[in-house]
């Protein structure tokens, strides 16, 4: 028997491991299974190149839990280790400045692959075990060895009787980690981290129901048999060539990834590059709602089929974190903090590759079947609009497929929109005004007025629209967006011709001061306008700029920091050519005049969906009195 000291630069690394990585305790299993997988794949390679002269066969990895003995065993049939290798790979923990490092990265360590990447993988066993044994037999002729260590830097190394090739790691589970002795817990971990690993992983057995033999009676039970319970799919769809997959394969892989998800994705994008970096994966476009925050964290990141995290921030461009699916790349440096990731040049390349690939796919779908693309638009627009807003490259590419739906359910590209609105939407200064609505119901009367003029009204209703149109205005010279209810119809797109008011200057003054006096507590800016005599007498509008700033503020960011919650701001447009305006002027009785003004104002509010509660009740009863 040999005794010795594990060669680490700090006196005792185990308390360190426990302390800093405690919250991530569960990754011990992933680390040990990764080692077992590596050992198995190494053997396969040695067989392939003829260096190991043996039958590779169908090696498995087995996980065994013995609740009574408080043991977990991870058994593989891989290359194994001889005495020399154990000394070299296990005892010489090549880890300088461990303490310093872990201290520096203790926050990012939680969701990163730090452990695996610094050769500390094996030692993560001590997060859950107070004693660990390794029994290993190399594929070479050397005798088997038995290593054990109780968490102090001291280890023991003995010969072992083991005859089969491979390694068995035995964890004596510590009291505070006894949850890991539950089958259910292990199943959960295997499902989370190992579901798509490349070597079959066995955890217990399961009962399989067989076909009834011919001639069996109705009441005879179907025969059953015990089979190995293999928990993983060793060749998941993303590892295959796109050409070898049918759409059903993508659909069934989606179900495998998200067993609890019943909604089918709209389409998928298969990522596959090996130069200048290595990346594979499948991204799915799910149906999206307008709630952006709910959608995140559904893409899973793998490294060589080992699950790493579902926080892909910094790797996948932010607008695509709303998608689902998997990304697998050995080239993503996970041993660094998130902020470093964003500045890493290979990660930058990965991010821009993904962006380009998604844009190409969308352009392809649009080209192939426009009607189908239009039918999906409302389910995917949030992602596309978000991408247009945040990634300039994507914005450029989106010209080919971004759609602008109208309130009449037609879908226009920017080019088509420009052609359709032409001169009609140009104001007296030659600026083209694009009219839009955000809600067909609420802005109905405003939309109708615009349509009467022959204007095209877009329906832009996703939450990032205020930000996006802001960006489009910056990009496209000579275009501006105005919501249909942001001004009177005459002023939305202001043309040269002047309307003549039926009221004299003096009458207008009187009307304005009367209204200002009567409505002084209501906070409206009163705006007299000589509109068509058939147009509404009173109308409430919300100036575009202030309203847009407010909307932007509500959906986050928006540049107007520190404005608190901005109040709604309405203008009251009074049509001086309307009969009511004349009527208000002509009415002598103060009470009658007031009730007239109130009634007209309420109608304007009603048109905008603003009349509620007590005010609505008062309006209804006043109206009844009037028609009596
Ligand atoms: P890493 O996997 O990053 O190299 P680990 O601490 O996980 O670091 O493992 C250290 C080394 O121990 C491995 O590189 C490998 O050589 C050896 N090793 C660990 N587990 C096994 C195993 N099950 N079979 C064979 N060798 C192993
Ligand atoms: Mg390892």
Write the SSE topology.
Layout: E1 2-5, H1 13-21, H2 27-48, E2 61-66, E3 71-76, H3 83-91, H4 98-104, H5 106-109, H6 114-117, E4 129-137, E5 145-149, E6 154-159, E7 166-173, H7 183-193, E8 201-209, E9 224-230, H8 247-257, E10 267-273, E11 279-285, E12 299-303, E13 306-309, E14 324-328, H9 338-343, H10 345-368, H11 370-390, H12 392-398, E15 404-405, E16 411-412, H13 414-421, E17 432-437, H14 444-452, E18 457-459, H15 465-475, E19 479-483, H16 489-492, H17 505-518, E20 525-529, E21 538-541, H18 544-554, E22 571-575, H19 579-586, H20 590-607, H21 613-627
Helix pairs in contact: 10-11, 10-12, 11-12, 11-15
The structure holds adenosine-5'-diphosphate (ADP) and magnesium ion (MG).
Residues 31, 35-36, 39, 76, 78-81, 89-90, 116, 119-122, 167 line the site of adenosine-5'-diphosphate.
Name of the level-1 CATH class of the largest domain? Alpha Beta
Radius of gyration: 35 Å
Please state roughly what percent of the residues sit in beta strands, choosing from under 5%, 5-15%, 15-25%, 25-35%, 35-45% or over 45%.
Answer: 15-25%
Given the C-alpha coordinates, what overall shape results? Answer: elongated
Oligomer: single chain
Our count of domains comes out at 4
Secondary-structure-based class equals alpha+beta
At the fold tier of CATH, the topology name of the largest domain is Heat Shock Protein 90
């Amino acid at each position: 028997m040999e005794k010795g000291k594990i060669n680490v630069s700090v006196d005792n690394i185990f308390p360190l491991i426990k302390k800093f990585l405690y919250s991530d305790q569960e990754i011990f299993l992933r680390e040990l299974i990764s080692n077992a997988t590596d050992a198995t794949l190494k053997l396969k390679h040695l067989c392939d190149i003829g260096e190991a002269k043996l039958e590779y066969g169908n090696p498995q990895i087995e996980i065994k839990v013995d609740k009574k003995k408080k043991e977990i065993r991870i058994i593989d049939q891989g290359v194994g280790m001889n005495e020399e290798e154990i000394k070299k790979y296990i005892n010489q923990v090549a880890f300088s400045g461990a303490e310093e490092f872990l201290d520096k990265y203790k926050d990012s360590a939680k969701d990163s692959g730090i452990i695996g990447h610094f050769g500390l993988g094996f030692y993560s066993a001590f997060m859950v075990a107070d004693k660990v044994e390794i029994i290993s037999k190399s594929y070479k002729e050397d005798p088997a060895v038995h290593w054990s260590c109780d968490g102090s830097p001291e280890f023991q190394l003995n010969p072992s009787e083991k005859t089969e090739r491979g390694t068995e790691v035995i964890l004596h589970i510590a009291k505070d980690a006894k949850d890991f002795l539950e089958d259910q817990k292990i199943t959960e971990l295997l499902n989370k981290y190992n579901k798509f690993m490349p070597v079959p992983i066995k955890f217990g057995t399961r009962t399989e129901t067989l076909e009834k033999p011919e001639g069996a009676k109705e009441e005879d039970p179907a025969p059953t048999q015990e089979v190995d319970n293999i928990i993983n799919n060793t060749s998941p769809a993303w590892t295959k060539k796109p050409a070898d997959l049918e759409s059903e394969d993508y659909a069934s892989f989606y179900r495998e990834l998200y067993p609890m998800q019943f909604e089918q994705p709209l389409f998928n994008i298969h990522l596959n590059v090996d130069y200048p970096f290595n990346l594979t994966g499948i991204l799915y476009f799910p149906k999206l709602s307008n709630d952006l925050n709910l959608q995140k964290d559904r893409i899973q990141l793998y490294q060589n089929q080992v699950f790493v995290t579902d926080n892909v921030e910094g790797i996948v461009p932010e607008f695509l974190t709303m998608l689902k699916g998997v990304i697998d790349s050995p080239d993503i440096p996970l041993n660094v903090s998130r902020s470093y990731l964003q500045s890493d040049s290979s990660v930058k390349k990965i991010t821009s590759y993904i962006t380009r690939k998604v844009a190409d796919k969308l352009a392809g779908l649009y080209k192939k079947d426009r009607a189908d693309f239009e039918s999906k638009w409302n389910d995917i627009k949030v992602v596309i609009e978000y991408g247009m807003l945040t990634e300039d490259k994507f914005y450029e590419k989106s010209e080919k497929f971004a759609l602008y739906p109208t309130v009449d359910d037609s879908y226009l590209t920017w080019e088509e929109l420009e052609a359709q609105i032409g001169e009609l939407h140009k104001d007296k200064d030659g600026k083209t005004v694009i009219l839009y609505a955000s809600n067909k119901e609420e802005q109905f009367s405003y939309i109708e007025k615009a349509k009467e003029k022959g204007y095209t009204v877009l329906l832009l209703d996703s939450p990032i629209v205020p930000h996006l149109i802001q960006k489009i205005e910056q990009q496209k010279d000579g275009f501006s967006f105005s919501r249909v209810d942001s001004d009177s119809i005459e002023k939305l797109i202001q043309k040269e011709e002047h309307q003549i008011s039926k009221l004299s200057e003096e009458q207008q003054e009187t009307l304005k001061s009367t209204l200002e006096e009567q409505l002084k507590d209501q906070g409206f800016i009163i705006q007299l306008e000589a509109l068509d005599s058939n147009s509404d007498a009173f109308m409430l509008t919300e100036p575009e700029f202030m309203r847009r700033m407010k909307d932007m503020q509500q959906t986050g960011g928006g540049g107007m920091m520190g404005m608190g919650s901005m109040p709604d701001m309405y203008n009251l447009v009074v049509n001086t050519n309307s009969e009511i305006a004349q009527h208000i002027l002509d009415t002598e009785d103060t009470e009658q005049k007031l009730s007239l003004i109130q009634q007209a104002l309420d109608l304007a509010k009603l048109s905008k969906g603003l009349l509620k509660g007590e005010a609505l009740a008062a309006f209804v009863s006043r109206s009844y009195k009037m028609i009596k």
